[in-house]
Queue: 4 jobs
Job 1
Amino acid sequence: MTAQEASLLVHCAEEGETSAGKLAKVMGRDKGKITRFVDRLEASGFVSRRNDSRDHRLLIIKATSKGLRFAPQLRTRFEEIRSQFFEGVLNVDIDKLETVLSQLHANAERLCVEKAHKNTRS
């Protein structure tokens, strides 16, 4: 299991059920990549998926009982790694970093939208 697949599993376990679109947004990946993650996790028995009964285009993903048992271990490991990664860095600096990264992400999204809009007018 890759780190991104593990992250997807933890997110599914914590959310109960979610959509591929929401996972794509939260994880910063396209839906195709999320689908490939889900394919592998489903083949391993960690998640299940179904189409939404109201909108068959919408894919609902849910952690299985196996995934729910495994997710807390992954969450703990992620927290250990984060703690080691930020060792010696002040919380205020981590907060600043998160703010800067969020703004950079928002700027990148805006630029992509502007570029797409510009291309459709051409």
Note: The beta strands are 17-19, 47-51, 59-63.
Job 2
Amino acid sequence: MVVALLRAIGVQATAAGSQLVVLGPGGPTSLFSSWNCIGWQSLVLLGLSMYVGLRSQSLREAQAQVVLVGILGTVLVNLLRVTIVCLLAATAGRWPAVIFHDYGGTLMTITWLFAYWTGAQRWLL
């Protein structure tokens, strides 16, 4: 899915298993994506926040919508995060990609969860 997003914005990329190769101005950049990079931590945080946020006596239909939007949104945020890491690695180099991976990705997840719960409380619950 990351390769499809990269190709959609005009970046040449390919994948083979857990290897991603992105063609940037400096030539091809090979990236390895392990199980720890795909965003399982954000799904754990989402689950914990849902445990607390859905304890009210809301309608089951509204709760199901909140769960669905939360899971889909978290998956999309993780796809965007990995795509940005690949773009940075191809264009700016290894260290900007590592810094974004380690810190920017965490900020993206936290920002997503705050926005998600604000919207869920306002429009769904």
Note: Helices lie at 2-8, 40-53, 60-91, 94-124.
Job 3
Amino acid sequence: MYLNKVFVYGNLTRDPEMRALPSGAQVASFSIATNRVYKNKEGEKQEAVEFHNIVAFGRQAEVIGQYLKKGRPVFIEGRLQTRSWETDGKKNYRTEIVVESFQFGADGGRGSAGSSSSTSSASKGKRDDSEVESGGEEIKYPAEDISPEDIPF
């Protein structure tokens, strides 16, 4: 069995670039930066930054283009893919992470909509109390806690 799986959590380095395929499907291209802190031989703290090229297709691309902006944190789950093309007789390569699912990261209190939503399924995960259903009514959660004795199994 072979495995091609990538998990990265970082900040967008630029706004997503939106395009459409000939089939009409949306494509979002963007990059995120991740950093790593380590100590060098002298024991001094060092920081290294890596930049990752990301591409998303379809509905995920539409959501990314709508909600993600430069500087926002995001968690990406995907796979590595290397593309190649030729320009003026020179072969070019680009390795990208193709998004399979993603989650908006904590926005540090900036209060942007959808900051903790997951796009892998609309019904997955918890929603904020302030989120509104399509019917225009606020979601009401019970105030009391559930005790272990209330669980039927």
Note: The longest strand covers residues 73-87.
Job 4
Amino acid sequence: MSIAKTMVSRRGFMKSALAAGAFPFLPGCATFGRDKVRIACVGIGNRAAEVIGCLEHAGLFEMVALCDTDLEGPQCAKVLAKYPSLPRFTDFRKMLDAVAGRIDAVTVCTPDFSHFPALMDAMRRGLAVFSEKPLAHTFEECELLMAAERKYGVVTQMGNQGHSGKNYYQFRHYVETGVIDVSKLSRLVAHMNSPRRWHKWNGKVAAFPTGEAMPKGLDWDTWLGTAAWHEYSKDYVQGEWRSWYDFGNGCLGDWGAHTMDTMHRFFSLGLPSEVKIKDVSGWNPFVFPMQDTLVYTFPAAGRRPKIDLEWYEGRTNRPKFGKGYKMLVPGGAIPASGAGTGTVKGELPPGKYFTLSDGTAWEGTSHANPILMCGDSNEVPDYPFKDLPNDDPRLDHYVNFARAVMGQEPANSPFSVTAPLSEVFCLGCIAQRLNRGFKFDPVAKHVVGDEAAERLLKGSEGTPRRGWEEFYRV
């Protein structure tokens, strides 16, 4: 009997046990004697190939099937050569039908806009899911994925790897022990100031690209998925989709998950009551602006006061830092991938920065734990928590996912945590698209007094495309 089917039949028992306090978390499935999680991959080129390499390195997964809409593209060659005997598909729906009962989990590493239908299909089948970040393209899709997580009781994980790194454990320790006193938070900043793919157009995009001849073997209809119909263009594929409002979540979706994630979680930010936008240049209605600053206002929660989170993007749109700031470039810092032109000497690395009312200031690069930069001493104090050794399996996001699927520990970055974070990105993308801010009701989860922004909670006009509506029903 498959893991998925077994857990569907046991779900009622497990939920009852959870309510009784018998388990610290609810596993979506367990391997029942097997030492590896059987997995199928939706997306195998570019970033997806890197994820597959991470799964291999974890040593806890067995590859069962591969899916990519462009199997004949050179970006897929490495993975296909490594697994020549595995069944391969261009349509995730056909793959999941074909391997039913033979897999425990699915990875979805495709463009931002196409995560949602593959995740929903897998979750409905009782399968654990691992999604690249951001979780989904629209606010509504994030809501539906959380609802599906609750309904189907499966293990979920989003690929913000810092949520299983030292950043995660150290930040959590600082907040839980009061080293960072959330009642004194006064300023939150996240930033990403590297060049991006859409900068090459300098904000001068007057229309969608003209249709071109498609590469041989590309399943364009499935690549589009739920998105409104567009003629094929090379300016949409191989990572270029990130530039367009209709397909990507811009810089926020790419890097917010690495710079905002621990602040959002451990400061209990939730959803904002207002999103403002300023310092915009290179705006147009098709691709993301050359630069902008977003300011999210988060209502008070628990001991934390009402607070703004400032987001800066654009080559020259850098935040102003306070006394004691130093440019941190730790060994092994993750480069700003997808920029198209690589990194620039002297470039400010993506990161986070926050201050407290007692005068202390903390900073960190995207995946790194925060370091005290200004306070009673410029030295990092010797706190009781010691850094985990580099080979500690708790630091591996994929090991954590496998263990969660096996029922051994909870996932560090489940959809219940990462969907609200991704919703923050979606709201920011709406402000960028409209080039204006708006107020938001974080309880009712609706835009206040702006019909255009409210409509964009569901995405671009024409979505979901006809024939894909079924995935929007939980």
Note: The chain has two domains: 3-163+400-413, 165-388+422-458.
